Amino acid sequence: MPDTLPYPRRMTTRSTLTGLMHEVSSRNGDWASPRDLGVARVTVTAAWLASDDPAAMLLLLAALHPKRQVETCIALATGMSFFEPMRVEAHSMSGRLPGMNFNGRSPFYFIHLYQLLRGALRTLDDTERSRLGFELAAAIRVVVPDPFTLVGPAE
User: What is the Cα–Cα distance from 148 to 56, expressed in whole angstroms?
Assistant: First the structure.
């Protein structure tokens, strides 16, 4: 995946993962294949580590890894299960074995977790969303310390 876009784009240190993902999501394109972020990998990784926006973090994972990620999605939902909507989703995922036929779309995509979390966070007041956002972002980084490789901590 190239590190730059065909047009100039610089992500400054003041830029956030939230801003980057807003820009990436506003571009037309196919979310079924990896998206070009338009900034250097090291810059995105630094923004990932500093982010307190769990929705932007899940959207970044969806942009980089659009294919089905069963184990990582279950681990993410389980890691964020202190938040009720994610607890319910983790329970739902545990009942759906990979390869199992079921009605509706598969929950084992990062874009699904992003949409679920974004919708759930919208119902909270600003103070609660801010507090919970920090905790959810930390939980995401425990499961996925590096968004480019999806390599979790050694067990």
Answer: 15
Residues in the chain: 155
Quote the distance between the C-alpha of residue 60 and its chain's center: 5
Q: pLDDT tens digits for 95-118?
A: 776 666 666 677 888 999 999 999
Q: pTM of the full predicted structure?
A: 0.83
Alpha helices, DSSP H, located in the chain: 17-26, 41-50, 54-64, 70-79, 84-94, 110-122, 126-143
Report the sign of the C-alpha dihedral through residues 75, 81, 84, 88, in that order: positive
The 3 state secondary structure assigned to 79-106 is HCCCCHHHHHHHHHHHCCCCCCCCCCCC
